[in-house]
Amino acid sequence: MSLSRLKECLDCHKIKYVVISHSLAYTAQGIAALTHIPGKELAKTVIVKIDGTLAMAVVPASRHVDLQLLKAAAGAKTVVVAEEEEFKDRFPDCETGAMPPLGNLYGMSVFADESLTRDEEIAFNAGSHRELVRMAWGDLEKLVHPKIIKLTKGKTVASAA
Questions:
Q1: What are phi and psi for residue 62, nearest 5 degrees?
Q2: Do strands 79-81 and 42-50 pair parallel, antiparallel, or not at all (unpaired)?
Q3: Which residue of 75, 103, 117, 126 is 20 to 30 Å from 140, comparing CA positions?
Q4: CATH, residue 122
Q5: How many Cβ atoms are within 10 Å of 21's Cβ, its own excluded?
Q6: What is the span of the domain harbouring residue 57?
Q7: What DSSP string runs through 28-62?
Q8: Measured between alpha carbons, how far is 56 from 99 in angstroms, rounded to an integer?
Q9: CA separation for the pair 79, 91 (Å, rounded)
Q10: What confidence tier does 2 reach under pLDDT thresholds 50, 70, 90?
Q11: How far apart are CA 143 and CA 22, in angstroms?
């Protein structure tokens, strides 16, 4: 992604943010380690299908989406992780797997794990595997209006610094 669409959106809404460049990394945990951001403060966007409709599930990098929790919270019959082929065309300005959690830019609902609200700031992929955006959680919440629910349970993926 050229960062331009994301920056334009944030600038238009007068949101303060920082862009963090890092060396190439494909996993949320790898990015957390490279950037020295705790896995609980780095959010990853997982594309899911809720009753056949694409949506974003946003969870800390150190966690996995619990599809049963999402299914119950959404009142859905089915919830599955979407296959790359099913969503890659929806994000023409992003590298696959590096989508920012701004569903409003892509016509998708956003479900965010309640644990993300515990930190004042949030960091997330900015559309590439080399850049993050860090901003206030409250600003993201006002911009995106995610449905805040419990999306994870159990232990972290790996011990996050």
A1: -85, 5
A2: antiparallel
A3: 75
A4: 3.90.960.10
A5: 11
A6: 4-149
A7: HHHHHHHHT--TTTEEEEEEEEETTEEEEEEEETT
A8: 10
A9: 21
A10: low
A11: 25
- State how many domains the chain has: 1
Distance CA 131, CA 125 (A): 6
Render pLDDT for 22-40 as a digit per residue (tens, 0 to 9): 888 777 777 877 787 877 7
Amino acid at 83: E
DSSP state of 126: E
Q: Using an 8 Å Cβ cutoff, are 60 and 42 in contact?
A: yes
Q: How far apart are CA 65 and CA 87, in angstroms?
A: 18
Residue 100 within a domain: yes
Q: Is residue 28 part of a domain?
A: yes
Angle at 82 between CA 77 and CA 55, to 5 degrees: 70
Residue 87 within a domain: yes
Contact (CB, 8 A) for 102 and 7: no
| More confidently predicted of 21 and 3 | 21
